[in-house]
Amino acid sequence: MLAFMKEILDKFLQLVLSLFPLSPFKPVIDELGSLPFLGYINWFLPIGDFIAMGTLWLTAIAAYYAWSIIARWVKILS
Q1: How far is CA 41 from CA 3, 10, 25, 29, 62, in A?
Q2: What is the DSSP string of 16-61?
Q3: Predicted local confidence at residue 15, as pLDDT
Q4: Which pTM was predicted?
Q5: Distance (Å, rounded) from C-alpha 66 to C-alpha 6?
Q6: Cα–Cα distance between 41 and 75 in angstroms, integer?
Q7: Distance from chain centroid for Cα 29
Q8: Per-residue pLDDT tens over the stretch 1-35
């Protein structure tokens, strides 16, 4: 029964995803992956580290705003 429900859900999600257009950036990303000097650029500009730091920064900002909203609600309720 559970496998049957999972199969139905998978088919439904495949149908929904097939309605969306393909990414217009896929050819560009594929071309960037084949560049021979991309590793050297990443050595000078560590893009992965930039993404990790940006994610951490955005998480901290989101936590701050969430905490400030909760604090305002608690202050209003008290």
Answers
A1: 47, 40, 20, 15, 31
A2: HHHHSPPPTTHHHHHHHHT-TTHHHHHHHS-HHHHHHHHHHHHHHH
A3: 92
A4: 0.47
A5: 35
A6: 50
A7: 16
A8: 788 899 999 999 999 988 888 888 888 888 877 88
